[in-house]
Amino acid sequence: MNGPVTLFRESPDDPFSVAGAASAVLDHRGTVVGWGERAETLLGYGAGEVIGRAAAEVLVAPGDRDQVLDAAAQCLDSRGWFGIVPVVRADGERVLLGVRARCVTRDGPDCEWFLVAAPAETVIQWETDRSVLDGLFRRSPIGLAEHAPDLTVLRVNRPIAHIGGITVEQARGHRIGDFLVDEDARTIDDRLRQVLETGRPMIFTEQSCRLRADPARERFVSVSAFRMEDSEGEVLGVTQLVEDVTERYRARRRLALLDDAGARIGTTLDVATTARELAEVVVPALADCVSVDLLEPVSRGEEPSQDAFGPVRRAATKSVVAQSEQVQYPVGELIDFAPDTPQGTCLAEVRPVLVSHIEGITGLSAVAHERARQAQDIGVHSVMMVPLAARGLVLGLVTLWRARHPEPFEDDDLTLAGEFAARAAVCIDNARRYTREHHAALNLQCRLLPAELPDLPAVEVAHQYIPAGAVAGVGGDWFDVIPLSGARVALVVGDVIGHGVDAAATMGRLRTAVHTLADLDMEPEEVLSHLDDLVHRLAAEQEANARDFPNDQVTGASCLYAVYDPVSRCCSVARAGHPPLAVVTPDGKAGFPDLPAGPPLGLGGLPFEAMEFDLPEGSLLALYTNGLVQTPGLDVDAALERLAAELSAPARALAETARNVVDALLPARPTDDVALLLARTRVLASERVATWTLPAEASAAAQARSLMNDQLTAWDLEEMAFTTELIVSELVTNAYRYAGGPVTLRLIRGPCLICEVSDTSSTSPHLRRARSTDEGGRGLFLVAQLTERWGTRYGREGKTVWTEQALPSAPRAGAGPPGTAG
After folding, report:
1. Rounded Cα–Cα distance for residues 678 and 624 (Å)
2. DSSP SS3 for 356
3. 3-class DSSP state for residue 146?
4. What is the CA radius of gyration of the chain?
């Protein structure tokens, strides 16, 4: 022999093995001429008792001899036989033996018969096992392969040969790598080698199984394997059972993808984010490239046209293919797909379009054909388009490409993409509807807030307004800077309970009311009392309408109202359930004055208290809503300390300070609206203010005119003397006639010329139109025509009538009625 000899040990499980079977030899007449030791043990006859005697007479009972003789006749005809034979043991017990007989020829015409036998039950079980093994190789639908220790193929059955696209005979002597692509062959080899080395079986392990003959075709198999050993434990090889589970794998993958899509698509109410989530789910699980295009109105949160007509805007893309950006339109690009393109067909007919091989597309325009050629250049070979439609509206489409994935799209892929698109379309439509409502609420909120803050002599101001995140929606926080008479200013910050359009609308009503009350020059505590009554009435209205509008929130609010006078440097503050005012003095010391807290607005009937204190020039006031200091995970006291630290930082621009405060205290997506108003105080220099107390005499008007003229001359405002003389004369004369006490005249030179006449009376002057026969009544009418604004404010000991005139360098905007803002 040229090669090594391999010895296989006999298995004790084989009933006909030499070691395990009883053996005997019969001559052509049926006489026993040979008797084995195992036969003696099995039947109890010694060799001397049976050799030379007819087997039928010694071993077979009389009643069974006809049956045995018939079997012997069959054996003579076929030169071999196997069957169950009744035999009598030496002790007289009748037993059944499985007997296999084979003809042994010698020189001469006669032959001898070699018999091997074993207990019938053992033989039947062995034959059953052998039949099972034979069935696995010949009739089983599950693939079966035997491998030698070096993993060469010993034997395969038809199903596994069919998977490999070969015949059973072609597989013998080859290795797995001869039929599968290298990557998949290495995976299977490594796993089989591990089974050989460890003896631990491999059970239902799924893996890719791509053939060298057709590497583009996706195929998955489930493999189980066990190590083969002989009776002494020597390793004979490994057997693997292989089942083609490609369709099952694809179905499971589709279900997993759908489950993943349900969890990942629609996590926010933002159109662009939802489009990106759809793209991230699809690539690379289903496609190598994807683009999500939304009709132009949908991208803005608006209603699309019923016929899906018009351009689309690219909302999201994702790709794992190099250079795909050279073919795809960028995000944000406005695209108008021609009707002859698959995308145009998808939108126009609202149906999915599958192009298994793009080289087969015909009838394209020159532009569309060129883009298809460019796609082919980077490896794109298959494409499909699925419409995004929800609630009867077409929102856009999704385009999926394959380039790296070798298999073209199939109908099952189109169905799966349609499921993705259907789920995403509902989420996009929800986001679109929310975006539309959210934008409307934000626009309402922005329109209700001040567009820009005035430049005032009393304070320098800066603000930050941060809307809440998408979940909370718009809120009712507001701020305001209101010019008051006498160069004073009102600083206001408020917060309406709740979120949404209701809160924004209530905020607008309160802000309007604050402007009206501020124009009446009321004290801070009086302003809050009137606001409290207003909120109480609004809450009553909402309760009355609760049946028609069940989602309306019962109104409640907080507010802080401060008035600062740059002449006296006095600041008067009152609050209604609002966070305290922060004050930073010019030396950098920050604190929170112990203001009376006051009840929230809307409780009704409870008093409010104001606190007054003087502020050095350059002091910083910070008014804010609770969203700034009540953030998740941060204690309020700690937040106030951080606020104080940011406000007392070294000198910097006020707008920069406001930004730093917000950045330091707020998370990226705050859960509540935040309004922050910073004001750095200014002081009008004494040379810009002139004050005189006039006696209650008839000469008071003349004296006032003289003092006024001198002061205007000192201020180089002589050209305003004539007009101001008429104003001062009218106001001082009225005070003398109707007040009956000393009169105070004050001139303030700021951005405008302010004239104030104060007396001890609480009677308000009224503007009226005098008849032609009246001797008086025209003075206040002239005052109104000669001034920018005029009005009356009341104090604890009387009233003050004030006017404002534009300085010569400032154009005159026109006069307004009493108490109106210019």
Report:
1. 9
2. coil
3. strand
4. 51
CB 472 within 8 A of CB 534: no
Q: What dihedral angle (degrees, nearest 10) is formed by the CA atoms of 659, 663, 664, 669?
A: 140
Look at residue 361 in the predicted model and tell me its pLDDT. 66
3-state helix, strand, coil in the chain (%, to 5): 35, 25, 35
Length of the chain measured in residues: 822
What does the buried/exposed string (b/e) look like for 693-715 if buried means 16 or more CB atoms within 10 Å of the residue's CB?
ebeeeeebbebbbebbbebbeeb
Within 8 A by CB and 6+ apart from 204, the residues are: 222, 223, 224
Give the whole-angstrom CA distance, residue 303 versus residue 409.
33
pLDDT at position 8 is 42
Confirm if 192 and 147 have CB atoms less than 8 A apart.
yes
Cα 785 to Cα 816: distance, rounded to the nearest angstrom:
8
In this predicted structure, the answer to whether residue 784 has a pLDDT above a threshold of 90 is no
Scan for tokens 């379009």, then name that residue: 353
CA separation, residue 450 to residues 463, 482, 492, 515 (Å): 11, 10, 12, 11
CA distance 727 to 707: 13
* Token reading at 608: 């409010």
Q: What is the CB neighbour count within 10 angstroms for residue 669?
A: 11
Distance in angstroms between the alpha carbons of the first and the last residue of the chain: 120
Specify whether the backbone of 362 is left (phi greater than 0), alpha (psi in -120 to 50) or beta: beta
Cβ 283 vs Cβ 289: under 8 Å: yes
**Dihedral, CA of residue 498, residue 504, residue 509 and residue 514, to nearest 10:** 80
Is it the case that residue 180 has pLDDT exceeding 60?
A: yes
CB 554, CB 541: distance < 8 Å: no
Cis check: omega of the bond before 808, within 30 degrees of 0: no
Instruction: List all residues 6 or more positions away from 453 whose beta carbon is below 8 Å from its beta carbon.
Output: 461, 463, 481
- Contact between 246 and 219 under an 8 Å Cβ cutoff? The reply is yes
Beta bridge partners of 105: 111
Look at residues 607, 611, 514 and name the one whose alpha carbon lies nearest to residue 564. 611
pLDDT at residue 688 is higher than 70: yes
Query: Residue type for 347, please?
Result: L
Tell me how far apart the alpha carbons of residues 470 and 453 are, in angstroms, rounded to a whole number: 27
Phi/psi for 620 (5° steps) reads -115, 125
Consecutive H or E run containing 496: strand 489-499
CB 717 within 8 A of CB 695: no
Q: Which two tokens stand for residue 261?
A: 């899509």
Give the residue among 505, 508, 520, 503 at the shortest CA–CA distance from 450.
508
Per-residue confidence band for 77, with pLDDT thresholds at 50, 70 and 90: low
Tell me the residue type at 337.
F
Give residue 492's pLDDT.
95
Percent of the chain with pLDDT over 70: 89
Angle between helices 721-738 and 700-714 in degrees, nearest 10: 150
CA–CA distance, 438 with 441 (Å, rounded to integer): 5
For residue 480, what pLDDT is reported?
92
| DSSP, res 172 | T
| Four-point Cα dihedral 726, 728, 730, 732, nearest 10 | -160
Taking the CA atoms of residue 400, residue 404, residue 410 and residue 412 in that order, the dihedral angle to the nearest 10 degrees is: -70
Q: Which helix (H) or strand (E) holds 772?
A: none
Amino acid symbol at 11: S
Secondary structure letter of residue 288 according to DSSP? S
Mean pLDDT over residues 625-634, rounded?
84
Strands 582-584 and 620-624: antiparallel
pLDDT, position 295? 92
Q: pLDDT tens digits, residue range 450-460?
A: 777 888 889 99
Structure token digits, residue 307: 């016929």
**For the residues 299-321, what does the mean pLDDT come to?**
85
Classify residue 605 by its DSSP letter.
S
pLDDT digits (tens, 9 = 90+) for 395-439: 999 999 998 888 889 898 899 899 989 999 999 999 888 878 777
List Cα–Cα distances, 69 to 54, 82, 102, in angstroms. Answer: 12, 14, 16
